[in-house]
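Notes taken during the Thursday session

The instructor put the following on the board and asked us to keep it in front of us for the whole hour. The protein is PaaX domain-containing protein. We were told not to look anything up and to reason only from what is written here. First, the residues (150 in total):
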Amino acid sequence: MPVDLRTHDPSDDVGIDPRTNKAAIIRLLYTNPNYGFTPSEIHDRLADIPKGSITGTLTRLLNDGDIGKTADGYYHALESRDDLRRFARGLVQVQDLTDRYDDEFTPADIEQTGENPTSDAQSGAEQDSGTTEGPTPEDWIESTDDSEQD
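Then, after some discussion, the predicted structure tokens were revealed:
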């Protein structure tokens, strides 16, 4: 996906492991940006996280500037944190895919992203040519040089 270089900040990458309590709380708050939640309400929705972990994690997220808190104790998403909103959306999409295809994938399928895939499957072109070498990066990039255009 192209990025707008006028507003792009490479340092806005979210450094939160998606498997952590932080990620679960970020997901809850940033997928419900119009609502504030008490720690008890967050615990009710994320019952697999102990209540003590909820309050400690909320404090760290608040201190790090990742979430906000109202004067009367409701934790909420920050409107200015588009990076966390995108992160939460990504977590939802991964969960949706996992729920949809959970029975069809094995750990070996997931590990296919490495340098040496474990599957013997090759694309039709690779099978025909007998080579596993793909197109070069030059084949992927369209030229933007005006001198090449007629």
